[in-house]
């Protein structure tokens, strides 16, 4: 299917957000016509697939546990490979991620990592200004003219050698309320993908790179097929050969784990890898089984990648990817460097090292880091275990991961410290997110939308089921959570001081957290609830 010429189209997309002179360089008539085309072509199907997610949830709610589909067994058995991997994606040993903030984009591209994932998703609060500024920043980065002057007088610009750029658009669930089509918010993913692709695809190709994407939170191979259709449509519209776009799919939902091979198949012309998005994966595990009183997980600090269900899933990702010629990317350790406390810092770095070492030894072809200070550590470990650009030739055919492995509950307990940490982290994260910041350090850990989802999902689960009991015997109740939210809010208020507290969004964060954890219904996404309050 090829798109009609953009110049002949009459624009019916409505822009509700502010359009400054600088924003107008992104929100051009041609770019908006392109986004509008994508929206017209693909929104109805996106809506159907979101409805299908709810149907799957209803099936699970009545006891149908997920399993590998008999109907797609031929895809898992047949002989096929993904399309070729471009030269600048062959070696992905360390990928740094970060929001589309101007300074951070420069720092990340200069960090020494092989790849930079510029994030419109877990690490980005989707304010209108933040998103459009992010598009400006990315365009300037692609054109190698990006600069930043800090208030302290420091000047930032790109090094001669930089990381390969990958962009992660928002997940299918997130709307963009500042762009309306037929009076309704458009899918945020189509805005992020459409604007970035329209403005940068040709330049990237000319530079010898390409339009590369990370695809988040997919729940089924049909959702992967939708992205494939979008890629074909977009490439045809801009007269770019099909197969030029290269994507990496995050396996970060429990249902997606049962269809990872099918997802790779659907996107085989466009897909070069899968990634273990461990944080959303844990969240998805809690969410999809939230009706099961026995599926109550221990405190999130105890759910590590060595837990059977997570280790099994990461091994499955490696097995599937290597069988099909794709990169099997590892995930993000939550630890970040700790300033002014060498001992605590060393302990954090030891945890990061152990995580990266396990990934490299297991067969991952690369990993994620959250901070430039972690790049040399991860590089050193992957250099040691993977001197070659990747280890795709390592086949894990003797490993047999079953549905039971993927559904084995992690063991552990729930402590008061864990309860307080979930409440405090969710409160502080939500407050930051409502203020336009999508990734923050809290207690020396990186917290983003995925980790905050785990925190609030656990609180809901612990309140609602008999197994939600602290290790000192106290049942976690609505009253206990309310009272602890209040206490943690006061403690944060003392810590940040009155001016910061008054200028921030703390009471709203507390209200939303209380609502989402104590209500009967399990909210599909925290970010959807909070988005109503975002400018
Ligand atoms: C579950 C998932 O989806 S994981 C993927 C999503 N999450 C992310 O992308 C995490 C990204 N990381 C971050 O946002 C940050 O590292 C944080 C918020 C965790 C910590 O940030 P800070 O407290 O500002 O870190 P810190 O003060 O140590 O930063 C030192 C320098 O490194 C820079 N920096 C820190 N993290 C990054 C990053 N990820 N990319 C680029 N630069 C970074 C800072 O901008 C700062 O630069 P400067 O010295 O030039 O001013
Ligand atoms: O996106 C990554 C995750 O862990 O979630
Ligand atoms: Mg994620």
Features:
binds magnesium ion; binds ligand LL5AMS7Z; alpha/beta; 535 residues; EC 2.3.3.9; binds acetyl coenzyme *A; single chain; 2 domains; 3-stranded antiparallel sheet; TIM Barrel; disordered N terminus; Malate Synthase G, Chain: A, Domain 4; 8-stranded parallel sheet
What does this structure look like?
One of its GO terms (molecular function) is malate synthase activity. Residues 14-74 form the Malate synthase N-terminal domain. It holds the Pfam family MS_TIM-barrel. Keywords: Glyoxylate bypass, Transferase, Tricarboxylic acid cycle. The active site is at residues 168, 448. Mean pLDDT is 97; it is low at 1-8. The protein folds into 2 domains: 14-405, TIM Barrel (Alpha-Beta Barrel), CATH 3.20.20.360; 416-531, Malate synthase, domain III (Malate Synthase G, Chain: A, Domain 4, Up-down Bundle). Helix content is 48%, strand content 13%. The chain has helices at 21-24, 29-61, 73-77, 102-109, 128-142, 188-206, 221-237, 254-257, 260-266, 278-288, 308-324, 342-362, 375-385, 403-406, 416-434, 449-464, 478-496, 498-503, 506-518, 526-531, and strands at residues 14-15, 94-99, 115-119, 147-149, 155-157, 164-168, 175-181, 184-187, 212-215, 246-251, 271-276, 327-332, 366-369, 440-442, 445-447. β12 (327-332), α12 and β13 (366-369) form a beta-alpha-beta unit. It is an alpha/beta fold. An 8-stranded parallel beta sheet has the order 6-3-2-13-12-11-10-9. It has a 3-stranded antiparallel beta sheet with strand order 1-7-8. A two-stranded antiparallel ribbon has the order 4-5. The ligand O=CC(=O)O is lined by residues 122, 250, 252, 277-280, 331-332, 450.
